[in-house]
Amino acid sequence: MCVMFLSLTAVDLRKLRIPGVLQRLSLCYLLVAAMETVFATADDRGKEKPWAWCRDVIYLLPEWLLSLSMLAVYLALTFALPVPGCPTGYIGPGGLHEGKTHVRCTGGAAGYIDRLVLGDSHIYGNPTPKAIYQTEAPYDPEGILGTLSAAFLCFLGLQAGRVFMTYQDHRGRLVRLVFWALVTGAIGAALCNCSKNDGIIPLNKNLWSVSFSLVTACFGYFLLAFLYVIVDILQLWGGEPFIFAGMNPLILYLCHDIFYRFFPVNFHVDPVHWKLLLKALWDVIIWLSLAFVLYCKKIFIAL
């Protein structure tokens, strides 16, 4: 029996982190939902037109223009905004990177904007590269600038939804999903030179780089097409148990974020790969069990 006591301490508002995962999700949803609310139409008025094969794009053309504009702003600020004491266009980790020549340039323009607007005390103080590059400047992976490229990825998800609304036959849906997978994948691969750290715009989740958004969208489109075949066309699988988690992702995220330090979710294991893997599987089982109970009780909490 494990007895757990939770101690609640006052939050120091002078050091409160303002950005975060849920905050970024809400901003991305706000931007994309606002565009969809203003420009969306449910009429398939171009079904018999010569451009019917690409009408999923035509229907979203104003939203495409706005989304690409957001992406253009992101790129312009990332690579053209002058950052005091740093090379223009720098997107490295700072610290020890390149012989300590850019010590406080972590994240380049993205980090500079966050520190300028929010202040050092209100963004993440232990960025991922700190362990390797001994960075000195705080950097927030869910900061202001990266929200623009993240919103573009969110819009690409909306494009997938438009495919299902526009094309009613299996073939039309699959063709469009694979088309978008190939387009986003090809552009993303070209930007990062099909590599992990190279290319014009390397893959970088902390910066939410354009290549990262496009490659992530590519895999998302391919996976959605595969699941559509397995679940909807061939009807070989109903989506369980993942459908349970998919109905309540917000509550599962919050529970994990709150209780991941405590038993029975967390407990000490030796830092051996197979033991850590089993512990991770145990975590998944716990939260899937909670999702299953909520599903059976028809309790669904969403944004």
TrEMBL record:
The chain crosses the membrane at residues 64-83, 144-165, 177-195, 207-230, 242-264, 276-295. Keywords: Membrane, Transmembrane, Transmembrane helix. Signal peptide: none annotated. This is Heparan-alpha-glucosaminide N-acetyltransferase. It comes from Dreissena polymorpha.
